[in-house]
Amino acid sequence: MIHYSPIMQKIFNIVILCVLTASSMFAQDRKWYDPEDAGYPVVHGQAFQGEHREGFYDRLPDRVKDGLSHAVWRLSRQTAGESICFTTDSKDITVRYKVRLRTAMPHMPATGVSGVDLYTKDKHGNEVWLAPKYSFKDTVTFSYSDIEPVNMRGNTRRYTLFLPLYNEVEWLEIGVGEDDKFCFERPSALKPVVTYGTSICQGACASRPAMSWTNILQRRLDRPFVNLGFSGSAYFESSIMDVLSEVDAAVYVIDGMPNAYAIPAPALRDTVVKAVRRLRSARPDAPVVLTDHCGYPHGSVYKYYRDAQEHALKSLEEAYQQLIAEGVTGLYRLRHEDIGMIGEMTVEAIHMSDYGMTTYADAYEPLLRDILCEPSGDVSTTMPVTQQRDSYNWLDRHDEILSKGNGKHFRRIVIGDSIMHFWGGSDVAPAQHGTDSWAELGGESLNLGCGYDRTENVLWRIYHGELDNLTADKVFIKIGTNNISWGDPDEDIVAGIKAVINAVRTRLPQSEITVMGILPRRNREARVKTLNKAVKAMAREQNVNFADPGKTLLGKGGKIDESMFTDGLHPDADGYRRIADYFR
Q1: CA–CA separation, 143 vs 501, rounded Å?
Q2: Chain segment 535-554, per-residue pLDDT in tens
Q3: Which of 33, 185, 234, 454 would disulfide-bridge 198, Cβ 3.0–4.6 Å?
Q4: C-alpha neighbours within 13 Å on the C-beta side of residue 344
């Protein structure tokens, strides 16, 4: 035992009292928000929204319990793949919750088994992981401090809180300052990618929740994923296939061979065929990915593992070929060699480390992007991202567009940045200068302009539904001026506009597409003129129209006519009237 002098003991007691007092004051200054009290669905990655569950965070509703094996049902109560999204302007965020099971496993740390993981984005849409301070006690706590505002206007940030991979959450609360803004976000209306598989699918052995391969892909593709991975229990049973088929999926990923190899031949082939037929009978148009056994990296020196892997690969190949012969369409394959598993990617030659999870996601990403028609290029102008650079909430603007376009036919759709946004036809706009000329265009028009947008932001919006469930006679694309401001080279801007053209053409193949030249802007007239020549040449190669309305806004010496602009960039009412004829 350590003995302190009376003076040192007194100092020590004062320090402890100060710490306890500060902790108590901090707790009192917190306002706590419980997702269960939101009054609307808030658990992202959870199928069957709104249905009754034994536990609020269970992955499946209780009505399917009796049809599932005990193991699958028990594992379905663990929160793999689920997340909570919220917005707040708080500089300090605390998450506290209680789990029902052990906090760690011998081969997987507590941060992955039972931890949470918080992500946000900067104003340009770049992903940011927030490093926590955490404590695994009876109540688990994760805290995040001194967070800066998303931009100089102090807008709220959007956060995604990934839930534990291998534990059941009994209750959870998020704490922010008493006077801070806070709001839970509803799950996306996009169809999810539904993944079915083994412990590898569930997330073993990621160091933290966001590093499971399904959550990596959810972040990369920025679309919902439903994780139906069940550790040691993926055997393609009819009961779980029926559950999968109830989910209206954008893609089904069937990745159960690391468990199902235990089924002997030829029963394994027949089991896979039966499972796919069952999905197809309920969802005839949904793409299905069949994934090979990822492989045992030590199989070359262990005959048992080598034989098991070869049995799984042979059986899946036979099942795939039989389904193709039967005329099953929309069937895809992720092959063993495309995954490329090696020993350094695993914890114990079976379950994946973060390195392995990233490699697995790398293998899936190009295949899923191809299926979803959501390519991402090699330069930033072709990589879809969100942004929050304006005074309004960019995602609210996106939701406004979705609500206006759903199920309608338009004479024209105008895609662009703030120059188009400020013209007319939008409920969410900091300013509008050309509402009269917009109204006079004739026929119903849809304005897809967003302030500060670059080509990569337009791509994100198109990939996330702004052209879905609608039709249009004409589509006008006017984007790129903010890429100039950002410093992108001309060739990258042209590549970004080309990517937008392809995204539009894929979704509206019957629409007439016109690429508009970038409008001239103060002190950038010569650069814009040169860039527009390259855009025109690209448009010709892509077999779409090109128009250059900006030439009507030029004065003497090729400089902008200042009388046609509000600020050297955005046209005024007369400026919009001058360019209107090009959009008829």
Answers
A1: 44
A2: 999 999 999 999 999 999 99
A3: 234
A4: 3
